[in-house]
Amino acid sequence: MIDIIEELCQKIENTILGDKETLEKFRHDFIGKKGFIPTLFESFKALPVSEKKIIGPALQSLKNEAEAKIKNATKLIETYVASSTTHKEDTTLPSFGPEVGSLHPLRIIQNKVISIFERIGFNLVDGPEIVGDWHNFGALNFAENHPAREMQDTFFIQRNPDKLLRTHTTSVQISTCESQVPPVRAISMGRVFRNEAISARSHCFFHQIDGMYIHTHVTFNDLKETIYYFIYEMFGKETKVRFRASYFPFTEPSAEVDISCKLCAGIGCTVCKHSGWVEILGAGMIDPNVLMNCKIDIDKYNGFAFGMGIERIAMLCYRIDDLRLFSENHIAFLRQFTACL
Fold first, then answer.
1. Is 321 helix (H, G, I), strand (E, B) or coil?
2. What is the pLDDT of residues 53-102, one digit of tens each?
């Protein structure tokens, strides 16, 4: 718990509270009813007396530091608001120069992901956002009555069941396999669309990256080592990783990969559903039916595939807890990434 307290102290020190919105979010995250500090105090109650003597002063100091920062920031903001209402703008002053722009946070993460996979031999491929049923479902081993084909999940073009907005960038893998002869080591990245309710955790469009490796004698261990390499390069070698058995129509066996939550340091938050773990990608060995659909000899070749959401990666890297911020173009939000060019 001492490590968590030290990490939160550092975060408090580095946080800049320049407006009411940022101040209120800081108050909610740290001293709100379900904030970091109240959660730590709940865990503190269950500690042995010997540990309480050590952790107690540090925990109380953390609380005092957070409350003092909130108090000071409140005074500064109130003073600024009062002064801005009493002083009129001087129109004789020279205008401000052009502001330095920045890349969108999703573009920053996309570039980093591409760089990581390119270092181990993956090539970037691209494909259209409007695809046919074959590339999006049929070739990927989706059954005819699979729920993903229904209108509540997929945007079809003018009620045409054979034209739709792609629901995953895995569709690019099919066109890549149809046009290239193995060995193939490729990643595809882009926007995908699903008919879902918009909330802090989901949107009707988002961005994905899919990867695949097809060669002779490919094993599940090759897949795991690739995933481990990516996670350690993206989040750091201290990140905890776990694989859970899962199901996808186009891979067998399949797995979902979780990492320790970076937003709450494993304490528990709304993003990780208070579990301390966040799912970041799905993966598995490519189903032989998919390879046969792409006219690839399954007696000679096999491979693995993986896919992940760029927004989920960005949320963890930048400690963002609302998916909608990436598409609402709030200037105050985007200005935070000026130094990330």
1. coil
2. 888 888 888 888 888 888 888 888 787 766 666 656 667 777 776 666 77
Evaluate whether 290 touches 322 at the Cβ level (below 8 Å): no
d(C-alpha 9, C-alpha 61), whole Å: 9
CB 105, CB 327: distance < 8 Å: no
Instruction: Say if residues 269 and 261 touch (Cβ distance below 8 Å).
Output: yes
Dist CA 137 CA 67 (whole Å): 54
- Does the pTM exceed 0.90? no
Q: pLDDT for 256-303, tens place per residue?
A: 999 988 777 777 777 677 788 889 999 999 999 999 999 999 999 999
Q: From CA 252, how far away is CA 260, in angstroms rounded?
A: 25
Q: What are phi and psi of 327, to 5 degrees?
A: -120, 0
Task: Name the one residue in this structure whose structure tokens are 């046969």.
Answer: 292
Residue 171: closest CA among 1, 307, 5, 78:
307
DSSP 262: T
